[in-house]
Amino acid sequence: MMISILIPCHNEEKTIKECLESCLFQTLKFDEIIVVDDGSTDSTPSILESFGKKITVVRIPKKTGNKSFAQQKGLKFVTGDILVMTDADTILHCNFARRIALDFKDKKTVAVAGYVKSLKHNWLTACRELDYVIGQDIYKTAQSYIDAVYVMPGCASAFRTKVFKKCITFDHDTLTEDLDFTYKLHEKGLKIKYDRKAIVYTQDPATIRSYVTQMKRWYSGGWQNLSKHRKVILEKPGNSLELSLMFIEGFMFSSLMFIVPIINITLFAYFMMLYLPVLFAFSLYGTVKRKRLDLLIYFPAYLILLFLDAYLFIRTFFDEIVFKNKNRKWTIPERRDILCNTEEDFH
Amino acid sequence: MQYGGGLSLIVHLAIIIIAKIKRSVSKILGIPIKIRIPLPHPIIIIALVFFVVGLIGYSLLISSASEYSNLDYISDSTYKCDSFLKTNGPNMVVLRLDDVQAYSYHEEVFAIIKDSFKKNASIVAGVIPDKLNDDKKLISYLRNNNCNLEIAIHGYNHILTGNPTIPEFGNLSEDEAYKKLILGKTILERISKQPIRTFIPPNNLYSAGTSLALKKAGLDIISSEGNNTFDYTVATFDHDKNSLTPINEILLKCQQNFMENKPCIIMIHPQDYETNGKLDSEKYLNFQMLIDKLQENNASFSRFIDIADND
Other CB atoms closer than 10 Å to residue B109's CB: what's the count? Predict the structure, then answer.
């Protein structure tokens, strides 16, 4: 079984070296590492050159402007049986490829969703890590028990190449192509395996501006895909449960976050006081599990982000669903150097 | 948000717990059990989610609006009432409104206070402190009307005990009574933001021990039953005849007190003006007419605390 990995990149000089090194230093080697250089104008091309024949570089002279276009170009060069997709700001755990190979031993498995950890940086990345803990250790784990994994992370997903080429096309009509792939797999009734041991480390936004940009893209993509694949809600009970909880409850919860304090601030304070211990318990769990004290230190900041998320969730609903102002703007996230002090975690 | 709200969390945790239990049972029994959780038809799921989420949202909104809301808070902090109190003069009348309590007779209590104030008549509210802290509406109302309203402690919970039944303070020792009085007084002082000095014993009865406890608790005005200055003169409801006391009868008894230069204390219960849990407008008309008649008879409305201070 040949395993290929596809990495699209655009101006990734700060992270691409570490990303590629993590791909090369795997306990089970990737048979093919394909990097699509989407018109980089920084030192990314020379960094890629330094890896010589260890990687295959596909060059696109002019920036395509969207990750999925670059992925589509790179897909033509993939010859492996298994296609792993990741991002240039992501570092793979040394056992990542081995776990993927193990997961695909099950003939029924068509896709594997990996486990994402956020690289430590500041309070915002600590909150994101807490979000990942809740999202992956509870929500995604439960989703895997009812065959309804909501999303295969764009930086940690793997597919059977044949199935991917045959059934999953790049439509470029939503902002979250990973979610689009997941919906397509559900539509075709194909099995997605969630592997908590197939770990990757990714860079998350470290400033409010980039956080807002990313959340807007995620939520817009969420509404776009829900609207595009609405039939899937009625096809499988697991998906019905997940999507209705996520969108109906999510919408109500977000709305009440603003309505209740306007009507009754005291009652809202009571609710927050009830919510705080729950959040504290999760951050404590995350701290122990991840061995990261920052999750505990910054957990109250998560409440602030909750308001921001609620606002963006409602706003994108109105933009995408009510006013049909489809957001197609793909923004390139800010990158920062990957610090080596977390290296021990990767191995 | 990305993951919904509390309901999603509960549902997902439940799924994990069920799956873990299944796995454990499978291990213990050594029989392979399918870990996948069976779910009902998608339509049923969506309908259920809609229903539960809708119910939660609706109850939240209702409770936000009905419990001490921001508007109540603003009106509480900005409210200033004009005092129209008379502290001396002839024909003094005290309207003693008993059984003001949490979550009961609000419509009647609010109507009596509002209409009395409209006619420049002050009121003494005999408030039952038990559970009062939870009733933000009543707290807000009492607080907003405090400058023409005297709050008196009307027992602690007003519950009859024993067989045959004894009123709450009918048989208490000094210590027992003191504990109840001081607790009730603290609650009332906190919500009314005024010192509480008056005690109206439930069922107008109290023990010798309570008498001693009242002094210790700083409650120096007692309005009970008998011929003491603050004891009630007449009630708006005649329990012997099981009907409202005729206005003329009340006026007559008041006149007798006026002639003796004593205030006329009229005992009112909100339940006298309700039928099937609603304010009975026909019965309530009787109260409104009573106030009018008292005014025609040159009555000066006052409170216990003002009469006591004037004496």
Answer: 24
Rounded CA separation A9/A89 (Å): 9
Asked if A135 and B3 count as a contact pair (C-beta separation under 8 A), the reply is yes
Contacts of B7 in chain A (CB under 8 A): 245, 249
DSSP for B66-96, please give it.
HSS-HHHHHHHHH---------SSSSEEEEE
* Average pLDDT score, chain B: 89
Set of chain B residues whose Cβ sits within 8 Å of the Cβ of A236: 42
Is-contact A252 B56, C-beta < 8 A? Answer: yes
Parallel, antiparallel, or unpaired: how do β-strands A82-85 and A90-92 relate? unpaired
Contact across the interface for B4 and A250, Cβ inside 8 Å: yes
Q: What is the pLDDT of residues B185-241, one digit of tens each?
A: 999 998 887 899 999 999 999 999 999 999 999 999 999 998 787 999 999 999 889
Instruction: Tell me the shortest Cα–Cα distance from B22 to chain A, in angstroms.
Output: 11
Residue B190 lies in a domain: yes
Distance between CA atoms of residues B184 and A52, nearest Å = 85
Helix (H) / strand (E) containing A219? helix A208-228
φ, ψ (nearest 5 deg) of residue A218: -65, -45
In B, minimum Cα distance to A140 occurs at B12
Containing A85, the helix (H) or strand (E) segment is strand A82-85
Does B33 reside within a domain?
Answer: yes
Q: What is the span of the domain harbouring residue B175?
A: 82-310
Q: Give the confidence band of A343 by pLDDT, cuts at 50, 70, 90.
A: very low
Q: Which domains does chain A have, with CATH numbers?
A: 3-205 (3.90.550.10)
Co-location of B88 and B70 in the same domain: no
Model confidence pLDDT, tens digit, residues B244-262: 999 999 999 999 999 988 8
pLDDT at A191 over 70: yes
Do B175 and B45 fall into the same domain? no
Chain A residues touching residue B68 (CB < 8 angstroms): 264, 266
Indicate the pairing of strand B237-238 with strand B243-244. antiparallel
pLDDT value at B1 more than 50: no
Beta bridge partners of A32: A4
Among chain B residues, the shortest Cα distance to A237 is held by B42
Of B24, B50, B74, which one is at a domain's C-terminal end? B74
Nearest chain B alpha carbon to A303: B1
The reply to whether B1 falls in a domain is no
Q: Do A142 and B16 touch (CB under 8 A)?
A: yes
Q: Which helix (H) or strand (E) holds B275?
A: strand B274-275
Task: Inform me whether the pLDDT recorded for A17 exceeds 50.
Answer: yes
Q: Is residue B25 part of a domain?
A: yes
Question: Under an 8 A CB cutoff, do A265 and B73 touch?
Answer: yes
Q: Are A157 and A92 in contact (CB under 8 A)?
A: no
Same domain, B122 and B159: yes
Q: What is the number of structural domains in chain B?
A: 2
Query: Does the pLDDT of residue B17 top 60, yes or no?
Result: yes
Nearest to A145 among B36, B43, B54 (CB): B36
**Predicted structure pTM score:** 0.73
CB-nearest to B67 from A236, A244, A267 is A267
Q: Is the pLDDT of residue A2 over 90?
A: yes
Which stretch of DSSP H or E encloses residue B296? helix B281-296
Task: Give yes or no for residue B87 having a pLDDT over 70.
Answer: no
